[in-house]
Amino acid sequence: MDTVSKEKRSEIMSRIRSKHTGPEKALKEALLIPWTRGTKAEFNADFLFPYAKVAVFVDGEFWHGKGKVSTLRKWREKIEGNVRRDRRNRGELRRRGWLVLEIWAARVLRDPGGTASFIEYFVVQRAGAADEQGELFNPMAGVSLG
């Protein structure tokens, strides 16, 4: 049983953002390489690196089914639907040759720089493998990690 009224719960839940969340903002500030936001064609990835075919999803623990799932039927069904959608959409990206990185929001908040480095490693590896001649866009050009 919920401890607040239906109206209050609706008000609280309406304030939860699905884009431009705190973890996404922290990661955006920490990333040193160019990225874009995914479109519907890329299943709305939070961070997209098309030159390396890497898609990054920053998932909130509650909404994506990590840990305790709500006992309220409405929210349990919503969360289970999110998990099914994630599995289907991300599987399709993988079938199209994309590397999909799924990162929990709490990890980003604990260590935005480390998370960014983790992502950048895979992007640079994939971008380099895509064009061994070095003609592909170099995401690290002009960036000093020293």
User: CATH fold name, please?
Assistant: Endonuclease, Chain A
Reading off the top of the CATH hierarchy, the class is best stated as Alpha Beta
Share in β-strands: 5-15%
Note the main sheet: 3 strands, mixed
H-E order? HHEEHEHH
Going by CATH, the architecture would be 3-Layer(aba) Sandwich
Separation of the first and last Cα atoms: 54 Å
DSSP helical segment count: 5
Mean pLDDT: 77
Q: Give the fraction of residues assigned to helices.
A: 40-55%
Structural class: mainly alpha
Query: How many strand elements?
Result: 3
User: Which stretches are low in confidence, meaning pLDDT under 50 for 5 or more residues running?
Assistant: 135-146
Shape: globular
Corresponding CATH superfamily? VSR Endonuclease
Explain how this protein is built.
With 146 residues, this protein is mainly alpha-helical. The chain has one domain (18-129): Endonuclease, Chain A (3-Layer(aba) Sandwich). Helix content is 45%, strand content 10%. The chain has five helices and three strands, in the order ααββαβαα. Strands 1-2-3 form a three-stranded mixed beta sheet, with helices on both faces. Strand 2, helix 3 (73-95) and strand 3 form a beta-alpha-beta unit. Helix 2 crosses helix 5. The longest helix is centred in the middle third of the chain and has 23 residues, at 73-95. The radius of gyration is 18 Å and the shape is globular. It starts with 5 loop residues before the first helix and ends in a 16-residue tail after the last helix.
